[in-house]
Amino acid sequence: MSERFKKVSDRLSPELKQRVSKSFDISDQILDILEKKRITQKQLADKLGKSESEVSKWMKGDHNFTIDTIVKIEIALEEKIIDTPNNYQKERLASEDTKDQFEKWDKYKPASFKTSYLNNTIEIPVKTAIL
Amino acid sequence: MTFYRLTNFNLNFKVKCYKGKLVKWIEGDVMTAYSILLEGEEECEAENFYLKYEDSVFAEDIDLITAMINEFLKRGAREGRFRPEGAVHAIPTGGSALRFYCVRMNKNMVVFGSGGVKTSQKSQDSPDCEPYRLFMVSFAKEFQRKIMENELRWDSANKLIEVVNNALYFEFGNCE
């Protein structure tokens, strides 16, 4: 490690470190969604009515995202970009409740029913479904 | 320092012939940063850049650059994170005029050069930064040639390996 680089790293304010880290988190999340959904930055820019170069600037990691911008991107991508720990916890608990209910039901379900929590599908054999 | 650095270039920014060695500058969990140690210099180019600007009026920009490089070291240098500057890249610095030039090889490896202050719309008209950009363009050309011709490669730990003897030694620019 370069001593000079370390010296400058040590003087960085917690605010700056956290701001850059958060900006990286947000842009990483957007880039991951774009990759997953095979959407280009140009297509995202078109959806938002922005230029491609502006969207590209947001992805650099030094952009100060506003809530307005984040909401617009979430709507355009139809996916959440950021969450709060409280909200995440609530959603996790809600999903565990659903899982518990499935498990209770699973114990008494007819043998011909096969449930899967992982992909949230319930396979019902055709004959049973008709009945 | 400024005068010294600028004497390495002609007034028309034509790059001279450079000789130096590729050296490891900083090592992170995911990315390793390299720089170029020129013959006759005590410090590599990236160190010279820090030495020149760390306590200058651009200190805040150096802080932002450092915070960004620290993120690259932890997460990797994702494509699209850099500011394109012709054939090379610069670390984004918001609206600052300070440019720190580099060559991104992949997510795990970046070679840093030096940089300067962009004082005009086109970097070609900025005497304080264009020489450093051209320096990196020349270096990048030679670096890519060495990779393409398999003189140099890297292992899974991002350590550069000399396939042929002295491949870490570079001669680039107008050397004929």
Number of strands of chain A: 2
Specify Rg of chain B, calculated over alpha carbons. Answer: 15 Å
Largest beta sheet of chain A, briefly?
2 strands, antiparallel
State which percent range the strand residues of chain A make up: under 5%
Oligomer state of the chains in this structure: heterodimer
- Give the number of domains of chain B: 1
- Give the distance, in angstroms, between the N- and C-terminal Cα atoms of chain B: 28 Å
Shape designation of chain B: globular
Walk me through the structure.
The complex is a heterodimer of chains A (131) and B (176). Chain A contains seven helices and two strands; from the N terminus they run H-H-H-H-H-H-E-E-H. In chain A, helix 3 (41-48) packs across helix 4. The longest helix of chain A has 24 residues, at 85-108. Chain A has a two-stranded antiparallel ribbon with strand order 1-2. In chain A, a hairpin with a 4-residue loop joins strand 1 and strand 2 (121-123). Chain A is flat, with a radius of gyration of 23 Å. Helix content of chain A is 66%, strand content 5%. Chain A is mainly alpha-helical and 131 residues long. The mean pLDDT of chain A is 83. Chain B has one domain. Chain B has four helices and nine strands; from the N terminus they run H-E-E-H-H-E-E-E-E-H-E-E-E. In chain B, 28% of the residues lie in helices and 30% in strands. Mean pLDDT of chain B is 88; it is low at 1-11. Chain B is of the alpha+beta class and 176 residues long. Chain B is globular. In chain B, a hairpin with a 7-residue loop joins strand 4 (88-90) and strand 5. The A-B interface holds A 1-2, 4-5, 7-9, 11-13, 16-17, 19-21, 24, 28, 31, 41, 56-57, 59-62 and B 25-27, 46-47, 50-51, 54, 62-64, 66-71, 75, 78, 80-83, 92-94.
